[in-house]
Records
---
Amino acid sequence: MSFNHQEIEKKWQDYWAEHQTFKTNTFSDKEKVYALDMFPYPSGAGLHVGHPEGYTATDIFSRMKRMQGYEVLHPMGWDAFGLPAEQYAIDTGNSPAEFTEHNIATFKRQIKELGFSYDWNREINTTDPNYYKWTQWIFTKLYEKGLAYMDEVPVNWCPALGTVLANEEVIDGKSERGGHPVVRKPMKQWMLKITDYADRLLDDLEELDWPESIKDMQRNWIGRSEGAEITFNIDGYDEQFTAFTTRPDTLFGATYAVFAPEHPLVEKIVTSEQRDAVNAYRKKIETKSDLERTDLAKEKTGAFTGAYAINPANQEKMPIWIADYVLMGYGSGAIMAVPAHDERDYAFAQTFDLPIKEVVAGGNVDREAFTEDGAHVNSDFLNGLMKDEAIGQMIEWLEDTGKGTGKVTYRLRDWLFSRQRYWGEPIPIIHWEDGSMTAVPEENLPLELPELDEVKPSGTGESPLANSDWVHVTDPKTGMKGRRETNTMPQWAGSCWYFLRFIDPNNPDQLADPKALKEWLPIDIYIGGAEHAVLHLLYARFWHKFLYDVGVVPTKEPFMKLFNQGMILGEGNEKMSKSKGNVVNPDDIVSSHGADTLRLYEMFMGPLDAAVAWSTKGLDGSRRFLDRVWRLVVNEQGVVSEKIVDTSEATPLEKVYHETVKKVTGDFEHLHFNTGISQLMVFINESYKADKIPKAYIDGFVKMLSPVAPHLSEEMWELLGHEDTITYEKWPEYDESKLVEDEVEIVIQIMGKVRTKIHVAKDISKEELEQKAMENERIQELIKGKTVRKVIVVPGKLVNIVAN
RNA sequence: GCGGGUGUGGCGGAAUUGGCAGACGCGCUAGAUUUAGGAUCUAGUGUCUCUUGACGUGGGGGUUCAAGUCCCUCCACCCGCACCA
């Protein structure tokens, strides 16, 4: 007989809701554990089988921690601003708010049907004005501290659609929708000064228990590099420029300079003979997107400006070129080129036949750039020195002579924070007619998004808000007129701090009660997909550090331990996608196999961080295991099986039970759910072989199963005669002494190969063990006529005889 | 190109500090049972060898009494970044 999952799952979900079983007490006396999922964007497609993987992992962890006596915060919410809802609104004329609300309802139903132990009293929705009030509040704080500023930045402008596009909406220089041309157009944008935090974001990675790959990605993204900034005079002009280099030691080998095509000095220094060539080149570059400039540029291109820079080390004239391999956004947008010791400069010099001068010995600069370390040559006071020392000496010389300075540069850019969109948090800024700009005062927050009759592009590149009356404001005191900022925040904004609000979700007076934050921060475990490795996790860390600086949060870092769940692939080992028709819908599985089976299967398929293909057969196997458990506990009449007896006598199951408790507890703690579950299976297999099973073991087993398959476990717990939910029952403990048997099996090897096995008392001495091994008949036979050279004895494990 | 990771049966995957390779599940084989089942139970299942045994963790080499695990080298695949001076 198998259990009726539809009945049982409904029954216990109702019970939990009615009894508020998972309500978290913010200020309880218990030790606190905060287990967080990356909250989802509630898309119209509904839940994907990938979602429950991470959610089940944190749920198992949370449920086990509750049973171990911790107060657990395990919340869920909705990252509900975002492009799809806006696009839907533009396409259909419907309201993005309604669309979003509908999607959330679907997601919530689906998530509830999976039996996760969330405290739904703490549900958060980033589009709720009571929530985004505080997102806006944080923005005004950033603005006050000078960390939010406006700058002219190129955006992807699509004239045909009359709108600005996000990078991911531009494919090969055309709009994803409609394939219209997209051009780069400078517009005034809000920027957040994340670069001020670059060093701290980098350094504090050290103390985090995160996958090394993610930390590395963040390190690369921040891209700290040390070097020097060198000032160059321009021959015949009263102008100077600076160039950043990590190899100031090669300054004597700098034979030309290159500016980014957009470099502001180009206009001033270009000679009349070269003007046409330079303009033509710049025009060509302008139509290329960033992607094309970087991706397709294998061959070096450029144009000579006609001007010369003076090498400050040797006063030699260096022709100044422009080329798109130099990026305006990094360093100062100008470089000194050392073709002998830099591959890019070498390629460029070859293409345009520029001089190559060796200053580091050891390579063959007639054939290729030499980038390794070596003794310096042709370098005056650096001659003979190796790289590190030469760099130090050169920086010293530059600083002494005022020609340059040691400098650290980052790849990380400031965060482009505005979006020309309707469906996002309004940026709470007013631009006054006198040209000044003020933040909306805290008492006027939230600045709510107005309802529009129709969401459609403004046509000017501004957000749809630009055409509504909402933008017009008048200062009640002075009567001055103003215009609201029409840009909204990016989707990242709401997710930068949601984990703080879960701690105190309904606080009307502050972002969260500092006392409560102190109880719960930092987050003990944070699980989500690796696609957020850089942006979300870096932005959230940045805001958190800022909030720490202004005294709002008590910790420097938000997420102590991070884990990335792997992807669930389709049966053919390919990504699930609608077009391949291999998408598995959780609703179907919940209805056919039950939520417990889905949870169990997703945890059993493989390690949590691995990408594993879905298997319907594997899913069936998981259900079969739960049925096996059920049949072991419950007989045909629907009451507890006769095999289960109330006894304290020692039974053959004693050892395997204690082993199971030990392994499952450790494995679940370390998120090794696949191996923990396999141990639960071992216990059940052994129990099937036994005539009688002590009830205490079954009670313990059901407790250990309950985090994985909570509905079934609650049902069995009730049948076993317990009245309350299993949620707060004490987690089983094991007795180490029960794990070792009196007799152990010893492997006897000859030359490292297993020849036989013997049983001996567990505390037998080394000498005795060796003797027993040597006396063994089979061994005697095998070593006859051979010389025993050495015997290695590992007590409790093996004896290895070296004989030949 | 740079950085990170992964290679173990027919498949998903297990294997403390080097100490019985293949736990557990899927699949497969045989038997039992059932009116029937894609149900259930029991046993078996790395490869070759009818036995003894030999071989086996991507390939090659090394250290060791003993290597999936440590070292060198090569190969394949996956992820991220990609002219960042």
---
Amino acid sequence: MNLAIGDLSRRTGVKIPTIRYYEQIGLLPSPARTEGQQRRYGPDELHRLNFIRHARELGFEVDAIRQLLGLASDPGRSCGEVHDITKTHLAEVNHKIARLSALRDELEAMVACDNRRISECRIIEVLADHGECQHRQH
Amino acid sequence: MNLAIGDLSRRTGVKIPTIRYYEQIGLLPSPARTEGQQRRYGPDELHRLNFIRHARELGFEVDAIRQLLGLASDPGRSCGEVHDITKTHLAEVNHKIARLSALRDELEAMVACDNRRISECRIIEVLADHGECQHRQH
DNA sequence: ACTACGACCTCTAGCGGCTAGAGGTTCAAG
DNA sequence: CTTGAACCTCTAGCCGCTAGAGGTCGTAGT
């Protein structure tokens, strides 16, 4: 297997400039090159980039991925640390979900302020007055 | 009411450089100045900045806020458009929540891959192989 | 009236995580 | 051997701020 950057891009779903960017920031190693300086990738890089892409999709920051990749190369005692990183990330995700759920409720209340039933649109005021639907009193 | 930028910052919870940034990108109008070029704000700006802050907290992008502010000054026929913006935003939020929920399940499966029960930590492989917990077969 | 000092000013550059474009070179199919 | 798609490097831009340098202003206390 001897993939050009475009092949690697197609196989991983990571855009070409992003692959080069990952190399630049040290997330992917510098690959072999042809005589004309074109990058050629093997299965290791394919695997690693798939890992990176999936971790990014899961919302891991580049720094966290760097940690995970570092720990992965030291498989003995690192397991607990990998768990810790994942747990920390899980806590963040749960927090995000909670915040977004509150937001969703608020937005639903906003669109429920149906303009057919009231004379004036209140969404602007609702936003200005910190998001409470105020059709009637209050 | 004649607020210096620091007062405005304290009252809205928006940081001073951010206020100046909002002015720079045209989200806030250029305020009155003292003879020594210091900004002085009145109640209109306070109200507008509170609106902006709340909308940002709700996850509206600056462009959307610009739209909302523009529509707010044309209150008659704009109501439906404001609803549309809000509904679009709500759909995006729901989408994010769905994605994050899937992510949470995946992360929970990952941390459930308890390293006391297995000989090798699988988190790395789980991430690499697109997130399926593969303790046993597969 | 003067001084001290905190709050303000402008300007530039940086952050993360890419993305886009210019302008030039290489590879591989026909 | 030619074409043209794919590659190369380099620089700059995106969003939404944030930080710092280096200098000026306003006001409280004396």
---
Amino acid sequence: MNEGPNIAQIASLIGDPARANMLAALTGGRALTATELAAIGGITLQTASSHLSKLEAGGLLAQRKQGRHRYFALADEAAARLIETMMGFASSRGHLRYRPGPKDPALRKARVCYDHLAGDFGVRMLDSFVCHGEIVSDGENLSVTDKGRAQLDAFGIDLSSLASNRRPLCKSCLDWSERRSHLAGTLGKALLGHMFDQGWARRSEESRAVIFTPEGERKFLLQFPIDP
Amino acid sequence: MNEGPNIAQIASLIGDPARANMLAALTGGRALTATELAAIGGITLQTASSHLSKLEAGGLLAQRKQGRHRYFALADEAAARLIETMMGFASSRGHLRYRPGPKDPALRKARVCYDHLAGDFGVRMLDSFVCHGEIVSDGENLSVTDKGRAQLDAFGIDLSSLASNRRPLCKSCLDWSERRSHLAGTLGKALLGHMFDQGWARRSEESRAVIFTPEGERKFLLQFPIDP
DNA sequence: ACGATGCTTCGATAGCGATCGAAGTATGGA
DNA sequence: TCCATACTTCGATCGCTATCGAAGCATCGT
């Protein structure tokens, strides 16, 4: 017994409702201040501060001081994937906590996951890349083919500028609403950023939803078709 | 706030050290009795019983009565994947709890994950399938090609008999020691079972390790080669 | 320099849950 | 039938931690 990594430690960090709410909110990719996170968790600032320092010590969060504000964000993409994985499992077991509202369908359609596109549109985009042979997958890691490189170049994304030693270019990330994978990594981030730049879509102010313009949606479906 | 699945509930289930130890032990795929699990968790039978009923209510465990024994096992493969994912994250953050010993290298080399092969050998096997075009991956799910079907047939595994409506044939599962994917699903199970049947390897009695015979290891490396 | 804002630290409280002893239920064997 | 084994349920205890008030520290604006 007692072999291997200590999962109880991080699980208990996520296991507190206030902390879980904060983490879920940070899955939206935006860095939030301690005051904002306290409101999200439904607790006072003092309590939130205690929680946040524990989460940081546990390697789930990273903080950045900026003036008198302190911004908190998920430590990295692996942390975001862990949270999304747990969401997927929880929803598959019926551990739901829905407060059904108009935002829900929008979230399922398209939302931000850390810094890339998730939801129905995110899954479709990766499907399109794969079924056209622009991205291939060897197990967990994805890689871009020459055909994909040319396609992305035409779309306006320069792969060579995305190279990073700290973070993989492509990574698959399990989608909790679709239960399939979407594209993460620096390429996933760049693609979402490009869509924002092109005016195809914008972020919702109060949730993780990504709202496409009618024109943007048309162009998205044209750019990432799915053939049988 | 408060949207989406309730991750705090399952996270707090895993967050208790005694429960985490039990779950980690069950990742070995064997069903264990309440008494055995109590010993693993380092608690009395009464406490263990309370824990086990909570884990079952949370959808993580399934129990099977057999005479006066009650066998507990992970509910399904998704539960096993969740635990392995958490192990991967925990070890990447240095949340280790090693009791270094001779078993450790054996576990990294080859071990059981639920009912399929994990560790260095598990990752190698999937790599071999993929780099020979016998299995292709479209995002999360893997699928066997015609070439792969023939290869497996020659190896002695009949794919058509593995079809199941309850569980996918192929699934990728993240390996906590290698941080790469290995092959899960009914095919992963069948492959490991076949190796046991052929006498290539056997299970360790006291841990999750899979111990290959020298002859079995030679045949394994020959059967699942990796070319550049 | 001074107050205001954002956040952390300290200290005390309160409540939840892990734990175990004791008693109760079910199954198997003699 | 009677005892032993395997497990669950009940009840009480105890420790841990989430929580918040109050005070302290840092930064910004003026």
---
Amino acid sequence: MMRSVAVIGKKCLHRHTVVLKGNPRTTLCWERSFAGASSDDCREKLSRKVLQDLKLDDAIGLFGDMVKSRPFPSIVEFNKLLSAVAKMKKFELVISLGEQMQTLGISHDLYTYSILINCFCRRSQLSLALALLGKMMKLGYEPDIVTLNSLLNGFCHGNRISDAVALVDQMVEMGYKPDTVTFTTLIHGLFLHNKASEAVALIDRMVQRGCQPDLVTYGAVVNGLCKRGDTDLALNLLNKMEAAKIEANVVIYSTVIDSLCKYRHEDDALNLFTEMENKGVRPNVITYSSLISCLCNYGRWSDASRLLSDMIERKINPNVVTFSALIDAFVKKGKLVEAEKLYDEMIKRSIDPDIFTYSSLINGFCMHDRLDEAKHMFELMISKDCFPNVVTYNTLIKGFCKAKRVEEGMELFREMSQRGLVGDTVTYTTLIQGLFQAGDVDMAQELFKEMESFGVSPDIWTYNILLDGLCDHRKLEKASVVFESMQKSKMELNIFTYNIMIEGMCKAGEVDNAWKLFTGLNGVKANVVTYNTMISGFCRKSLLQEANALFIEMKENRTLPDSCTYNTLIRAHLRDGDKTASAELIKAMRSCGFVGDASTFGLITNMLHDGRLDKSFLDMLS
DNA sequence: TTAGGGTTAG
């Protein structure tokens, strides 16, 4: 590449002129063509307005007319058409039209070459783009900034980001003046290749070379940094901008504020909000919505409500996003009444709810087992031509499954397919879980098979639910087969996977196998549930020594026992007739602030009745 | 007549 670009030099400029002069054919033809109706037609068809909404078929037809008309229309007309086709992203077609032109003896000019180089780049055919650049330069055309920016874009989107950086340096050395397009293209490429620090360094390098980056360039870097959560670096850039007397605008401030808030620096976000006000930058509905939404999600309702009244007072009107964000936050915190009030308020303000609004409300109704209202909301949105997407369906399906109405969930699943929506991993996982809970083991397994055959990849949660369902329904053998295939696959098993299998084995009486699994957790850390399950497995087999040993081990491994750990052990020791050990455990449990659970109370009551225990035990428990 | 990516919120 560098060799090709290295030949770009001043001497080309001379030849450039010569070639343009030496290309009188198109000029002459064009002059003559004023008399020809067909060429006039073409020219009319190529007017800017027509080109804007030109259809692909018309473009091809037009090209056919153009190559048939004699004399040929000028190269400018061809360039306009090629450009229009390139805008339709039909890059291959542009290339083939270019080839046809050459076959017909219609010479390309600088613009044609630029368009074609761009097309090769967009098709990731870097070598062909470079070859064409070489050819073009041999003919004496000096690439201009647009040609080089296209090439730069090609490098950025191909895997040649270091060549992209080098190209910009070389452009500067050769006297080209990189423009905003050059920089935003390179910056975008750097972020695409995870080179955030190089993007920041680029800004410094530009300044060093006496090339002051503009607002757009800064904006691109700030945006890229914020998307990665590098808010410190973004704030540094804001300071740099200020030092360079480039005033950040509301978009840049909103970007940083949003990012600060999302990464849990909400107070810094609020401070920056004040700072932008002090600098005379007026926040807009987006600045407010983003802050309000984050604050609500963190439960900072009073701050959020202060901002809301603030924005209304300043006539910055909340829009559908503001309302939806609020509704969603209220719903997630279980405040459905408030969410419904907000919904009424937005209707009163003639703000149309959108798919987010409806989906949040449907979620709210589902969370409160108000399935009929959820369904009603779902039908309402459709009646308003706001069509549910896979997320909306998943929400409602989950609601029905949780309410043990898996049949209706399945019905929705079929309905979404009819609407042309494809279920995703969440859809299938939810339904598989619902089917297992409803005891429909066969259907659950069938759905799992369907999901695989439809190319929807099960994730670790899908597998965990499958394992759990199989174990719950006494299909440990089948679960073990699945588990082994998971171990062999690249999938990372989590502690839930192990907990499910350990529990399944213990419940099936296979404590030895469960213990084997427990001692062979592949780099996964046991949690309190893992210990509880194993301890309970030992207790079930009256292996109290093992259970006690594990209880000690879990404390040594800094896994805090919970109410379940204590209750399991207490019951086991009571059944074993060891009153002393039980009494000690009860004391220890109480000192941790836990109490006896229903099973423990039940057992003690029974033992009181048949005289195995005296009343002091009951007093100890409560 | 040629190029980039947008500009931010649920």
